[in-house]
C-alpha cells in the first residue's frame, strides 16, 4: 500500500485540478471581497455543475485522506 500511495496522490491531484478548472468562476473584483454587486443575483448550481461541485469535494476529501495515510504509514 505504501508503494502505490504516491501514484494515487498524483492521480487525485491531477483530477482535482481539472475538476476545479471546469467549474464556473465569478471572476469579478467585487466577489473577491465578498460583495456580489456585479451580478445582483445569487447563483444556484444545477445539473452537471452540482454534480461537478460535489465530485470536487469528494476528490478533495480523498486527496486529504491519502495525504494523511501517507503521513501515518510513511514513517
Q: Main β-sheet, in a few words?
A: none
**In the residues, how many domains can be counted?**
1
Mean pLDDT comes to 84
Q: Report how far apart the termini are.
A: 13 Å
Q: Give the DSSP E fraction (strand runs of 2 or more residues).
A: under 5%
Rg, please? Answer: 17 Å
Number of helices: 3
Keywords: Cell membrane, Membrane, Protein transport, Translocation, Transmembrane, Transmembrane helix, Transport
Function: Involved in protein export. Participates in an early event of protein translocation.
Organism: Candidatus Zambryskibacteria bacterium RIFCSPHIGHO2_02_FULL_43_37
GO molecular function: protein-transporting ATPase activity
Could you explain how this protein is built, in words?
- The protein is built from 3 helices and no strands.
- It has 75 residues and is an all-alpha fold.
- The protein has one domain (5-74).
- Helix 1 runs antiparallel to helix 3.
- The longest helix has 27 residues, at 48-74.
- The model has no long low-confidence stretch (mean pLDDT 84).
Brief summary:
The protein is mainly α. The chain has three helices and no strands. The longest helix is centred in the C-terminal third of the chain and has 27 residues, at 48-74.
Amino acid at each position: 500500500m505504501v508503494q502505490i500511495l504516491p501514484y494515487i496522490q498524483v492521480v487525485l491531484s491531477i483530477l482535482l485540478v481539472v475538476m476545479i478548472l471546469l467549474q464556473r468562476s465569478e471572476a469579478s473584483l467585487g466577489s473577491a471581497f465578498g460583495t456580489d454587486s456585479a451580478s445582483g443575483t445569487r447563483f444556484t448550481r444545477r445539473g452537471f455543475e452540482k454534480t461537478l461541485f460535489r465530485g470536487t469535494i469528494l476528490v478533495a476529501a480523498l486527496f486529504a485522506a491519502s495525504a494523511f495515510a501517507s503521513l501515518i504509514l510513511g514513517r
